[in-house]
Amino acid sequence: MNIAIFGGTFDPIHTGHLLMAESAREQFKLQRIVFLPTGNPPHKQTIMASAMHRLAMIKKAIQSNPAFEASIWEIQQKRTVYTYEALAHFKKVYPRAALFFILGSDSLRAVPQWRQGIALLRQARFLIIERPETPWAGLPLTLRRWTRRVNSPLCAIASHEIRARRARRQSIRYVVPDPVAAYIQKKNLYSGISR
Length: 195
Description:
It is built from eight helices and six strands; from the N terminus they run E-H-E-H-E-H-H-E-H-E-H-E-H-H. The chain is α/β, with parallel strands linked by helices and 195 residues long. A six-stranded parallel sheet has the order 3-2-1-4-5-6, with helices on both faces. Helix 2 (51-62) packs antiparallel against helix 8 (178-187). It is globular, with a radius of gyration of 16 Å.
């Protein structure tokens, strides 16, 4: 079985995330993709929505895709969890699976500075989604040799732009799935007042 972990803050999850995951699933014949929202990310200072809100939005976004699932594991740790720890955990959960890890090209550039750095790339098969601001061809050759590029349409949607649109009271329709937009509206997320 081929299983991929797709980690991130997902603050909020958007259609770009789903397109990336589905492209990876199809190209690399993945039977399951586990969306793993961070609880306390080591590289981001501010998270706007709580972990439980972000998890709820992921569940709503992926509910129609039987190959997608959400994991609460990292949130339950109630501390900063590093990628090498997440990979070790899922290797124990799925000992017979081929483990993949989905990552944006912008994040791949920073991997050498992460805990265990380049050694991480040997712990799973890293599938890289090209981001417009970080072209695949511009990445160091050493990183490209250890990873595989996902053939996915370039997606310029960014969670911080969705949050900014909400703060300006602009529409987020079509950039997030309808159930996620409804949840954001109901809980009044990203408007300065949340429930």
